[in-house]
Amino acid sequence: MSETPARQPSIGLFATCLVDLTRPSVGFAAAKLLEDAGCKVSVPGQQSCCGQPAYNSGDAADARAIAQTVIRVFEGFDYVVAPSGSCAGMIRHHYPALFENDAKWLARARALADKTHELTSFLVDVMKVDGLEADYDGVVTYHDSCSGLREMGVRDQPRALLGQVSGVALKEGEEREACCGFGGLFCVKYPDISGRMVDAKVDDILATGADTLLAGDLGCLMNIAGRLQRRGSDVRVRHVAEVLANMTDGPSLGEPGDESKK
Prior knowledge:
By secondary structure, this protein is of the alpha/beta class. The chain has helices at 17-22, 24-36, 52-56, 60-74, 85-98, 103-114, 119-126, 146-151, 156-162, 186-189, 191-208, 218-230, 240-244, and strands at residues 10-13, 40-42, 79-82, 116-118, 135-143, 166-170, 212-215, 236-239. It folds into two domains: 10-124, Rossmann fold, CATH 3.40.50; 134-261, Rossmann fold (3-Layer(aba) Sandwich). It is built from 13 helices and eight strands. The chain is globular.
């Protein structure tokens, strides 16, 4: 007697603004990884920004309005997955705080928060992905983004997945967990401090001798790629999903043809 196949979990892919507008290849890579893991993936067209810029600037009213849109759009899925620790952290940890004085919306925000995950964490911790069919010939170093690491607990998961990629050699930096200086609005409010922070990050990356920098947050990657380019470095910069999904034929961040440069 044959077993009834398990139902595919439904995934609402929260593509993020930066991926949608500057690096859509990351969204396609995330969708491929989730589908290969056995998920049914949807990318709702009505999704918007997670509201983090408004929240970080103290505009709670607009942040709540944006959060309500996101909750309405995504609450029907089994899980919400984002290729960004920053956006996932906003939904998981800050949405409930936005509605602490509104019992109805607080319950809905908590329900969404409980099923929201960063991409690599979801693949490892929930879907137990093992045996990726991917290869990448290079020495890579990994940058741990602040939100992914400190809000979402993402550290070992991307490294576990990279260990399944043929040809990859991982060389860790001494300051891999240090902030790159982007911090959303931080780099706009404090450009001089931000510039010194990203220079220190670049120094650490170059000291590893790696030919490729990987990370799970596009904001960090764009910030670091820009400084690497201005310093004349040929280190390639990619979102980790692109390598895991075996989708590295296109330009890396900062190279000619990269959408994020436009």
